[in-house]
Write a structure and sequence with these properties.
It is a single chain. This protein has 347 residues and is of the alpha/beta class. Helix 6 packs antiparallel against helix 12 and helix 9 runs parallel beside helix 11. The radius of gyration is 20 Å and the shape is globular. 43% of the residues are buried.
């Protein structure tokens, strides 16, 4: 059990899901998601014209069909896995745990109000964005959303945020052990497919204003920019995990999925899946380390559509390695991150 020096509460923050697979719920969810200025970083008017006039009407029906393929009797996989993670974590710590979704339900406001109502003497909330890597459209927007709710409601408790944990030893150990059993089967390559982001997001997050994406090896050159650089952080995770597992450099690679528009980080996962069989990579292992919970992007985009692309291009075997979900080592790492005040950002 964690020591309880103060009355603390824990808030786990994940991306979110629509309330159902109905097109109307997809419209609502996509509108909230894509109107976020940290996801589509254009003026409000331009964003509204693009999202409400083009993207949502076009994508909502298609997204509804995609969600139907993975929806469970309990609901959205991402919500279900996050709820299970909450229960597993609650068994390890004394502090009350709640979950919030950046988009959809339950909201950060609902979760914080619930924590306070059920624990009126609470003095501190530790918010844990469940994103290993810093990006405007994931970690940053989750933190800023909680900050806005905190300011609006003038809560008496203080709040702090667990930092991105892309090189946390416990997280890396959990990720490595999650991969290890799959290395016993024959494979030509393991593909680390990370969620894509526009290059301009990385440049905007560069605190130096002159480092990120300026040279090919900028991610390997020490800089204060790395604290907010998604590309540096995903490369670091990949390097450290492959070192733990002794995977040689010619047996793994990185790609980026879920692109929306031009100027996104390359290579693209769907393109690589089509190219690999032609390069002699017939037996593929693939995982999505940007996600700690299986969701639409892993279960439908990669495990279903990605597999179809790869196999149709001449692949022979395609194995999707699940996300950490409720892996015991991941739960253990989470408890340790929560307990160590030196990894907190006050806010």
């Amino acid at each position: 059990m964690l020591s309880t020096k103060t009355n603390k509460g824990i808030l786990l923050i994940n991306l979110g899901s629509p309330d159902s697979t109905n097109v109307s719920d997809l419209r609502k969810y996509l509108d909230e998601f894509l109107m976020d200025e940290r996801v589509i970083d254009k003026s409000w008017l331009m964003r509204a014209l693009l999202v409400k006039g083009i993207i949502v009407p076009f994508r909502a029906p298609k997204s509804a069909e995609a969600y139907k393929k993975i929806w469970t009797s309990e609901g959205s996989p991402l919500i279900v896995y996050t709820q299970k993670l909450k229960r597993e974590l609650q068994e390890k710590i004394e502090e009350p745990v709640e979950i919030a979704m950046r988009y959809g339900n339950p909201s950060a406001e609902y979760a914080l109000n619930k924590l306070l109502k059920e624990n009126p003497l609470i003095e501190e909330v530790i918010a844990v964005p469940l994103y290993p890597h810093y990006a405007m459209s994931s970690y940053e927007t989750a933190v800023e959303d909680v900050k806005a709710v905190y300011k609006k409601n003038k809560y008496s408790f203080k709040i702090s945020y667990v930092s991105p944990f892309y090189e946390n030893p416990g997280y890396l150990e959990a990720l490595a052990e999650n991969i290890r059993p799959y290395l016993n089967q024959p494979y030509d390559q393991i593909l680390f497919s990370y969620h894509g982001v526009p290059g301009r997001h990385i440049r905007k997050s560069d605190v130096t204003g002159c480092h990120c994406l300026q040279t090919e090896n900028c991610c390997e050159t020490d800089s204060p920019a790395h604290a907010h650089c998604y590309r540096h952080q995903i490369r670091t995770t990949t390097r450290l995990v492959t070192e733990i597992l002794n995977i040689p450099a010619n047996k793994y690679s990185i790609s980026f999925q879920s692109r929306l528009g031009k100027g996104w980080l390359t290579p693209f996962t769907d393109i690589r899946l089509e190219e690999m069989p032609k390069e002699g990579i017939k037996n593929l292992l693939i995982l999505c380390p940007a996600f700690v919970s299986d969701c639409l992007e892993t279960l439908e985009e990669i495990a279903m559509r990605g597999k179809e692309i790869f196999m149709n291009a001449g692949g022979e075997s395609f194995t999707m390695i699940p996300c950490l979900n409720t892996n015991p080592l991941w739960v253990k790492a989470l408890t340790e991150m929560i307990d160590k005040s030196d990894v907190m950002n006050e806010g």
